[in-house]
Design brief:
The complex is a heterotetramer, with two copies of chain A (390 residues) and two copies of chain B (148 residues). Chain A is of the alpha/beta class and 390 residues long. Helices cover 35% and strands 18% of the residues of chain A. The two termini of chain B are 17 Å apart. The chains are: A alpha/beta (390), B mainly beta (148). Chains A and C meet through helix 3, strand 3, helix 4, strand 8 and helix 10 of A and helix 3, strand 3, helix 4, strand 8 and helix 10 of C. The complex binds zinc ion (ZN) (2 copies). One zinc ion binds next to loops of chain D.
Chain lengths: 390, 148, 390, 148
């Protein structure tokens, strides 16, 4: 099997992430769509874009489901088919995968994929409640286990089994806030210190406030084409050369191991195999750091290091912006923000910017191959994509 | 070592009970921690399921578990949803029962500082909650003083 | 363009529809999956099924989202990728379409598509509230417009413009209850009289209780394969030869015409063109009769008659079980029931049974070509599929 | 016939108001029914949008509507959600405003038997509701006695 360009990215858009007061999902999505349209003057969106695949996690946030057609309408793309995909926090990563399938199917030549979430108008307690819907109702929600709680259970197990420390987790936050400070669209553009993370209030021990990603509003999108026509629209397409997805039990407790996400490992394996690359070939990675422990486990599950050695990677600055393999140059979910439905394609947006050399102050020079890793819930869904500069 | 007990139909409710999550909670209301066992491949399930994920059989027996096990991970929740915020801080653990199944839940009557991975815990029941969706009787964990 | 078999259906399953007390979505879905597995002994589900596409409308019903992996798990199909699709009441019709794309993409040879909803454990008022999430929050929900209200607005406009009568709508209910009485899996298996419909209490004038579909629990699924391998699994595959989908404004009020669903017309046109058939070629149809007026409008939008003439079709018994073109032989959403997420693939299930000659007492003899029409919300999403006996 | 009025920036709130649904409801709180007009292709929008769906322009002006129009369909709701059940039966109509835009809403102070498609209605305002998501001031329809 030889490496194949599955689809090409010809443009992309990202709204500001953060507290976007007075704006609802559909309005925020237009911000992202507008950027994608403007960056690709050769594209006539209304005529050319044939379908939309939208990640959107929660209809409770705005008492609004059926998001697909709403966003198609607001982006000026009616009557194109528009589909909402919900795989918890992996919703738009999976939407990206659906867009790839849609083009490979031959039914479409050009599609838009993206995602959106509006969260900051609700109380933190409501947000906590709505997010739990991505976990198991009868055994997890009913016992009062929050999402920070689920990742805290992974963290405790990881600490116990491998000796991972709270300081190592805190360093993930420090690194990602450093990167976020260089990203003008990040929710928080401010460096933080190790002490600040360590002394922040406990949310779910051992996770503290600064171990948790941000509750944000935001939207993201990509425009995908059949690789044969990509050059019609841009001189510098980025190709997607690998995609993977897998599932696991909804309940964290039902799994043999709490220190690894099997769905993530399998999704990675599928994507690596399809792309014909190994972790050593990667120049840049965006991983799903919904909590700092998740980034450490992601290093291990993606094969950047052996199981249990994720903490060492962060200690050795390997994944820093100027390290061997920069991870979450965007600031990650931790500092860029985590409007859940938008996160998957926002990760792809960052990889795209980096590969076309437009990541400005956080540019990794000469980046050619990138990977994005998007996790749903406590790992019941995971999807990995591998990108290559065209 | 006898790890779980078969109930042999001396209780009518058992034979008639569908292999559902609701039945699990109905049994809890009777202070029974019940799992299901596939008649074909003998895999134990908790939560109970109508179909065995190992062999796709739909024939099961109910099995009563002892409710003893070992803590494999825990957390202390300081910020929660509206329903649970008043109980914070509370301890959540995942317990590997002696029967080999994992169960998550609240650990009661324990100082967070005492807690350690590997400690022996025991399932107990709070049957004060009537069974009507989405309300169910509760199980919880407490220190297994005899095994510790 | 010649007619092409896009995918083949090799098996299908349907749970009993109705009030399934004490069972939650995942347990109901197993009923459908079990039937599909048992009807296809040559299939090894765990080895052969490569992905799941699941329609599920509302996370509020069971405080449970992230339904894809849950159903994959409960059906014994982990770690296969499993995706929840939400297009309101068209969720599983759209899931079917995604399954078709997935196979056409070449990424998979065999996939499961399906849908599920658990509704009857909630009060009718809660269900009414959760369903409104598929309509526009800021202008429709905020003004107290329910789903019966939206279809009532279409009905009033249709009555005003075309002279359609309440009796004609009531006859749709009578016909579908007649068919439902012959379907052992229907929620209500009882004939009703015109008088009973006409005298039932008003829900949203001119729609009365018996103009409304049922609030039901239920699940449905199909197993799709690449047509090249269908004969490995069954002697009588059914091929899907056309698929269409389109979107419209989320708000009914924003449309030029209230008496027609533009998304439905466009989806039908796309499917007819792909399948190279016309309405005259159809032997059997399942349409989205969430309210009786919707079936009358569906006749018109699918081209069975001219705009405004849907009422005549029902008066002339054209769509009766023994009529020229039987519609909703299953009993439709009206009598079979409407567990919203399950409806799209439940329609396909009925067409499949009819085309392989296993519809028992309601069999339409010699049926060779069928069509299913699944509508989301008040028509912001619509999808049409055309099936042919293999 | 003057169908709508441009506001010419004699009100600071207007110039500053983003083209959002929230702004629409803020204006309602000032008893103003406002739509947006695309500066490029002149299409009117209600609800307001940040991007013109005809020409993709993002330049708009706010336009004040008269709030008069004709009923194009209606229903009487007898069963509703918890929030609205106490108001049943209530009348919902879709009104085609003279400016050409449709608006759905509750018709107040009308006997259902009086109602007919084509009748002239007028927008009025209920500003007693504070603006905080998901609460907004309300508009409603009533008989336009002058035009009828
Ligand atoms: Zn078994
Ligand atoms: Zn314009």
């Amino acid at each position: 099997m030889t490496q194949k360009n599955l689809v090409s990215i010809i443009s992309s858009g990202l709204s500001k992430f953060g507290r976007l007061e007075g704006k609802c999902s559909r309005e925020i999505f237009v911000e992202a769509a507008k950027e994608a349209f403007e960056k690709c003057p050769n594209l006539d969106p209304v005529k050319d874009i044939e379908a939309l695949f939208i990640g959107h996690m929660g209809e409770s946030f705005e008492h609004q489901g059926h998001t697909g057609p709403i966003l198609a309408d607001w982006a000026g793309l009616l009557p194109r088919p528009a589909i909402r995909i919900e795989s918890a926090c992996a919703s738009s990563g999976v939407a990206l995968r659906m867009g790839i399938m849609a083009i490979l199917s031959g039914m479409y030549n050009i599609v838009m994929v993206g995602g959106v979430e509006k969260m900051t108008h609700r109380t933190t307690m409501d947000v906590t409640e709505f997010l739990t819907m991505a976990s198991d109702f009868p055994f997890e929600q009913w016992n009062g286990i929050t999402f920070p709680g689920l990742y805290a259970l992974m963290a405790t197990a990881h600490m116990h089994k491998y000796g991972t420390t709270e300081e190592q987790m805190a360093r993930v936050a420090v690194k990602n806030h450093h990167n976020g400070a260089l990203n003008p669209k990040a929710h928080i553009q401010k460096e933080i210190t190790l002490e600040k993370v360590m002394s922040s209030r406990v949310i779910a021990w051992p996770l503290k406030l600064y171990d948790c990603s941000l509750i944000s509003d935001g939207a993201s999108c990509l425009i995908l084409t059949n690789p044969n026509i990509a050059k019609t629209f841009t001189d510098i397409p980025v190709h997607i050369i690998g995609t993977g997805q897998a599932s696991d039990t909804i309940g964290l407790y039902e799994r043999d191991e709490l220190t690894t996400l099997k769905a993530g490992r399998l999704a990675g394996r599928e994507a690596y195999k399809m792309a014909q690359v190994t972790p050593k070939d990667l120049d840049i990675i965006e991983v799903h750091d919904c909590f700092t422990i998740a980034e450490i486990i992601a290093y291990e599950d993606l094969g950047l290091c052996k199981p249990g050695k994720g903490g060492n990677l962060i200690d050795q600055n390997v994944t820093n912006l100027n390290g061997e393999i920069p991870v979450n140059t965007s600031g990650g979910l931790k500092a860029k923000g985590h409007p859940v439905g938008a996160t998957g394609t926002a990760q792809a947006y960052e990889i795209y910017l980096q590969l076309i050399g437009q990541a400005e102050k956080r540019q990794v020079s000469g980046a050619e191959i990138g990977l994005s890793y998007n996790v749903g819930g406590s790992g019941a869904s995971a999807t990995v994509h591998i990108f290559k500069r065209g | 070592m006898r790890r779980y007990t078969f109930l042999r139909g001396d209780n009518n409710m058992l034979e008639d009970s569908p292999f559902t999550i609701e039945s699990f909670y109905k049994f809890l209301g009777e202070r029974k921690l019940m799992a299901t066992k596939c008649c074909k491949c003998e895999t134990l399930f908790l939560p109970p399921r109508p179909m065995c994920t190992k062999c796709l059989s739909t024939n099961f027996n109910w099995v009563k578990l002892e409710g003893k096990g070992e803590l494999i991970s825990y957390t202390v929740i300081h910020f929660s949803t509206e329903q649970f915020q008043s109980k914070t801080p509370y301890i959540i653990g995942i317990v590997k029962l002696n029967a080999g199944l994992n169960l998550p839940g609240i650990i009661r009557d324990m100082n967070p500082k005492q807690i350690r991975v590997g400690m022996n815990l025991l399932v107990d029941f709070d049957t004060s909650i009537p069974l009507q969706w989405p309300q169910w009787p509760r199980y919880f964990f407490k220190l297994d003083t005899l095994s510790s």
